[in-house]
Design brief:
Elements: H1 7-27, E1 36-52, E2 60-74, E3 83-100, E4 103-124, E5 128-149, E6 152-174, E7 179-198, E8 208-225
Length: 237
């Protein structure tokens, strides 16, 4: 299952989120009269191995593909400054494969997510910005579908919670006076919790499965830059 289980996962998550808030607050304190807002499209794939907290059911292996649409804000898209803070909030449409004891099922649902990135712009020119930094993902999802069990169709209701952190590498292309096209790729390690109303909430189990998750993906965004978000803001009207 990996290095974490039960209470250890919860403690790890609390520490990561607390440290992130402190770091984001300290770096976000850099003065800025710029930034930009836009829309994003993403694709990600994650793999997890989940164990029943009550040890009633055998482990689940899950592979989740997600196509996401979101609204994005970035504090610094084009300026000649080191730091930028980016947040993307939106909806993932998920397709999840469930493997258990040699049986495979496929279910669909949706998930609300918030992704935050602290970027360090190590390449900065008037035409582009290349940044790298840690990215934090938080998500809450819902699946209401059916699975096949011994030839019968059974209800499947899952609520999921995901949290992960890892590196993100991105490039901003300034294609217009106030327009930036951005693409980034990320890899995150974290935890996944799946809470079942049905099918795994019987035989003495509370229906909660937990485990480690690896997620990788790519995101493209289009931003409208407002204020004085330019490499040299002296030349912006």
């Amino acid at each position: 299952m990996g290095p974490f289980s039960g209470v250890d996962r919860s403690r790890w998550l609390v520490r990561v989120v607390s440290g992130w808030i402190v770091l984001a607050g300290s770096l976000g304190a850099e003065p800025s009269s710029a930034g930009g807002i836009g829309g994003s499209l993403s694709f990600s794939r994650s793999d997890a191995r989940l164990e029943d907290r009550d040890d009633v059911f055998v482990d689940l292996d899950t592979q989740t593909d997600a196509v996401g649409f979101g609204v994005a804000f970035d504090s610094n898209l084009a300026q000649d400054r080191l730091f930028n803070y980016r947040v993307v909030a939106g909806l993932d449409f998920v397709d999840q494969e469930i493997h258990q004891a040699g049986i495979q099922n496929q279910v669909q649902g949706a998930s609300f997510f918030v992704d935050q990135t602290l970027g360090f712009g190590f390449i900065r020119t008037p035409d582009l910005r290349v940044y790298i930094g840690p990215s934090l993902h938080l998500g809450v999802g819902e699946i209401d579908d059916h699975i096949d069990v011994d030839g019968f169709r059974a209800d499947y209701e899952e609520t999921s919670f995901t949290a992960g952190i890892g590196p993100e590498l991105g490039i901003n292309f300034h294609v217009g006076r106030h327009l930036t096209f951005s693409t980034s790729t990320f890899v995150r390690y974290g935890v996944r919790v799946q809470d079942y109303d049905t099918f795994y909430d019987d035989r003495g189990s509370d229906g909660v499965f937990t485990g480690d998750e690896i997620q990788a993906g790519i995101r493209t965004s289009i931003f409208f830059r407002f204020g004085r978000d330019a490499y040299d803001p002296r030349y912006v009207d």
